[in-house]
């Protein structure tokens, strides 16, 4: 999983040299409370939670760069390249890349490959230059690098192997699509990004400008429902996730997240994401977490 002690340092991708400067890390104000899933919850072993927190801070920092509307695309790519360089050992001691240095230390302590972090950097570089997706496969290619690395990192951190990646990838990709649907209007208005398959928009007679309306048109509603149909297929692929986890604790958290995703999918069927953000209540969130964790604990989740 991690780099062997006598192996050479991994090589950063093209364009990794970047000058450090003020504002390389520009917080968006989003934090763990914004997410649809628990971040380093009490279900995970206490000794691993600090590493989960470092990974989350790293992912949030590079996501915030990609979403910073004050930066042009070239600047975003250069700054993200700087994070990759710092992750791989360059810019030592530079405070502009503090979260990358902390992540590098964490990876060394846990013997985990930097590949998951590099995949996130790569996809956020893509976010800087690409705002449309041709079809579902194109969108899934994005999700496998923007969402799946999170689950893969957690599996590796808990001593698992790539054998557990399949259901995890499906769940993470489903969560990413759900988040895109929740934020579809804001992503379009603020960032000019549309994470809806272009061929489905065309087939249903919808246009991206429909996202700027106060409510879904019938055509846009059909596109959203098609996305939810495909998301439900992903959730079925992810259903056995808890039983395949090396760690029972991680399996309990994964089952809780699956229940959250299932409930959000149901809510998005019934509510209009343009009329207001579709989200769980605190009570609904707690119920999903308890239901999934307990089902996994007694071996019933996914049956």
The H-level CATH homologous superfamily of the largest domain, spelled out, is Farnesyl Diphosphate Synthase
What overall form do the CA principal axes indicate? Answer: globular
The quaternary organization reads as single chain
- Rg on CA atoms, Å: 19 Å
Number of E-state strands = 0
Which second-level CATH architecture of the largest domain applies? Orthogonal Bundle
- Segments where pLDDT lies below 50 for 5+ residues? 1-23
Strand content: under 5%
Name of the CATH class of the largest domain: Mainly Alpha
* Count of domains: 2
Q: Give the mean pLDDT.
A: 89
> If you consult CATH, what is the topology of the largest domain?
Farnesyl Diphosphate Synthase
- What count of helical segments does DSSP give? 12
What portion of residues is helical?
55-70%
Q: Which structural class fits the helix and strand makeup?
A: mainly alpha
The major beta sheet can be summarized as: none
H/E element sequence = HHHHHHHHHHHH
SSE layout and pairing:
Blueprint: H1 49-66, H2 73-87, H3 98-110, H4 115-129, H5 136-146, H6 148-157, H7 165-182, H8 184-191, H9 198-204, H10 218-238, H11 248-270, H12 282-297
Helix pairs in contact: 1-3, 1-4, 2-3, 2-4, 4-6, 5-7, 6-7, 7-10, 7-11, 10-11, 11-12
């Amino acid at each position: 999983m991690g780099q062997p002690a006598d192996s050479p340092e991994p090589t950063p991708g093209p364009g990794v040299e970047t000058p450090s400067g003020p504002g390389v890390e520009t917080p968006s104000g989003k934090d763990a409370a914004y997410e649809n899933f628990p971040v380093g919850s009490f279900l995970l072993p206490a000794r691993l939670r600090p590493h989960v927190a470092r990974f989350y801070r790293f992912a949030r920092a590079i996501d915030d760069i990609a979403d910073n509307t004050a930066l042009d695309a070239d600047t975003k790519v250069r700054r993200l390249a700087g994070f990759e360089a710092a992750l791989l050992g360059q810019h030592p001691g530079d405070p502009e890349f503090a979260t990358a240095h902390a992540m590098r230390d964490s990876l060394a302590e846990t013997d985990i490959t930097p590949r998951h972090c590099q995949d996130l950097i790569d996809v956020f570089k893509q976010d800087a230059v690409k705002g449309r997706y041709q079809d579902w496969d194109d969108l899934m290619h994005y999700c496998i690098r923007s969402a799946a690395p999170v689950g893969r990192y957690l599996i590796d951190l808990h001593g698992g192997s790539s054998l557990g990646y399949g259901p995890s990838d499906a769940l993470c990709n489903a969560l990413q699509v759900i988040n895109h649907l929740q934020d579809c209007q804001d992503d379009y208005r603020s960032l000019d990004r549309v994470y809806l398959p272009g061929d489905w928009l065309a087939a249903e007679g919808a246009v991206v400008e429909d996202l700027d309306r106060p409510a879904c048109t019938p055509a846009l509603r059909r596109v959203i429902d098609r996305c939810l149909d495909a998301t439900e297929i992903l959730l079925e692929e992810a259903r056995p996730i808890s039983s395949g986890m090396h760690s029972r604790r991680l399996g309990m958290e994964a089952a809780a997240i699956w229940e959250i995703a299932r409930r959000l999918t149901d809510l998005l069927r019934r509510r209009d994401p343009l009329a207001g953000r579709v989200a769980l209540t605190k009570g609904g969130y707690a119920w999903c977490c308890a239901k999934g964790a307990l089902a996994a604990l007694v071996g019933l989740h996914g049956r």
